[in-house]
Amino acid sequence: MAGDAQAGITRRLVALLTAAMPPSRRHWGGAMSAELAYARSRGERARLVLGAARVALLPPPGVADYRRAASRSAALAAIAYVPLGMGLYLANAVFPSPQDSTAGDLAMDAYLLVALMAAGALARRASARPGAPVIAGIAAGLVLAVLGMATLAAIDNSFLSIVSHQPGKIDGFRASGMTSMRAYINSNLEATAPGVAIVLAIAGAIFGAIGGAVAQEAASTWSHLRRHPRR
């Protein structure tokens, strides 16, 4: 059931990426969607998603606005990630807690959504193309996913003596039947990474578009107020 759900999410993500591609390249998205039917593992599905993202984020030279939107949003996501990375380090290595904080998780989720919307708004200010905020959001989501999983991998391996005492990891390790906590943690990270990338890419497409729409509406309102100032 979990595999079917992930396959369905992957198909929707490839469809979103295909819609964001320039018309001249959408046949690539169609071909990748067809290939999903033959993908038998998470790794194969992840490679197809990354391939679709590459085609969408690196369009032909004639549509350089998309490439500019992707690069700017990627830089924005890298900067926005700094406090998130510090938070992960403090929560897992410096002040570890037996249970996850609901308030902390909600705050992190809200921060991620704001960052994705900001990427879309930045893209809308830089380009009038309808797909630019979507591509910017996807790029930002993928950067945040890669940085987040890399940070967790570094923390888990560098502070194994602390991380291995977390109740969730202890329970998972016992259920896995593995003999090495380090191997269990790394295999769990490897299995989780594609899903995190897919979820953040989808969230980036959605909230990037929302951020772009908000920025466009704000610009329109500001322009109207400048032309018709209140007396």
Description:
The protein has 231 residues and is mainly alpha-helical. The chain has two domains: 1-58; 64-227, no CATH class. It contains nine helices and no strands. It has helices at 2-20, 26-35, 42-57, 64-94, 102-126, 132-158, 160-163, 167-176, 181-227. Helix 3 packs parallel to helix 9 (181-227) and helix 4 runs parallel beside helix 6 (132-158).
Architecture blueprint of SSEs:
Layout: H1 2-20, H2 26-35, H3 42-57, H4 64-94, H5 102-126, H6 132-158, H7 160-163, H8 167-176, H9 181-227
Shape: flat
Task: Specify the number of helices.
Answer: 9
Summarize the amount of helix as a percent range.
over 70%
The parts where pLDDT drops under 50 for at least 5 residues are none
The main sheet comes to:
none
| Element-by-element helix/strand order | HHHHHHHHH
Number of discrete domains: 2
Class computed from helices, strands and strand pairing: mainly alpha
What is the straight-line distance between the termini?
63 Å
The percent range for strand residues is: under 5%
User: Over all CA atoms, what is the radius of gyration?
Assistant: 20 Å
Mean pLDDT: 82
Strand tally, please?
0
